[in-house]
Design brief:
mainly alpha, 0% strand
Length: 72
């Protein structure tokens, strides 16, 4: 899990690197693999059966559709 206080700096770094289409969101309870987790520790990864949390997948899909446009 990325601590919420780090998100503004992550966004700043992405934009500073030249990216314009940037959206940074906190996804509480998910690890770096977008899986529901208890601690966020990589030691948990092998015990988690979920591939990707549906809420993360929906957020990513919505961002893509909003960014590139629906039906293009």
């Amino acid at each position: 899990m990325v601590p919420a206080q780090n998100l503004p700096e992550i966004e700043k770094a992405l934009r500073g690197g030249g990216l314009e289409r940037v959206t940074v969101r906190e996804l509480p309870g998910l690890n770096h693999l977008f899986q529901a987790c208890q601690t966020g520790s990589p030691a948990e990864y092998g015990r988690i059966e979920q591939t990707i949390d549906p809420s993360a997948l929906e957020l990513i899909a919505d961002w893509i559709l909003e960014t590139v446009g629906r039906g293009r």
